[in-house]
Amino acid sequence: MGIGVRLKEARKAKGWSQATLEAESGVSQQMISKLENGTSDSTSFIADLADALNVDVHWLNSGKGKMADNHATNESAPSYNAASSDAQSIATRYDALPPTLRNLVDQQLQQAEALAAACDGPTLKKYHAQLQANKIIASGALDEFITSPKANAKKHRA
After folding, report:
1. Distances (CA, A) of 93 to 13, 80, 84
2. pTM for the whole thing?
3. Which of 52, 55, 58, 62 shows the shortest CA–CA distance to 31?
C-alpha cells in the first residue's frame, strides 16, 4: 500500500473531501489528488498532511507503525493548567487551528514578544491597548473560522 492509498484512507476516516484537506493542510487539492492517484510520489508535503489528518507522519510516509498520532487525537488532547481561563481558552483555540494558521499566530506572537522586550513602560501600555483592540477583532475572526470552517474555506478560496 503506497502513500496515496494511506492518504486517502486517513482523509476518508475523517470524513473529509480533498478540498477540506486542502483547507486544513495548506497543500493544494491538485497535489492531494496526484498523491492519492499515484501520479506523484512527492514527500515534501507529508508532514503538513499528517498533521492536518492527525496521523503519524511515519505511517503516512512508509506504512510502518500505527495510523493514529497519539499526540494529536482528541482523547489525548493536552489539558492546560494555566492561571487564567483566558490563557486556557487561547491555548484550546490555538490547538483547534490548522497548521497554516498556527504558523501565522506564532509569527505574531514572536513579533509581539520582540516589541515588548524593546519597549519602555508608556510605549508598552500604548501597544497593549492596541493589542486589546486587535484581540477583539481577531477573536471574532477566530470564532467565525472555528464555527464555520466550510464557509471560511470557501471565502479563502474565492
Report:
1. 23, 12, 14
2. 0.45
3. 52
3-state DSSP assignment of residue 115: helix
Residue 10 is part of which domain span?
A: 3-75
Tell me whether residue 80 is in a domain. Answer: no
C-alpha cell at 124: 508598552
Check: CB of residue 50 under 8 Å from CB of residue 31: no
* Counted domains in the chain: 2
For the segment 64-106, what is each residue's pLDDT rounded down to a tens digit?
Answer: 878 876 544 444 445 445 456 667 777 777 777 788 888 888 8
Question: Does 142 reside within a domain?
Answer: yes
Same domain, 107 and 45: no
101 contacts 153 by C-beta, under 8 angstroms? no
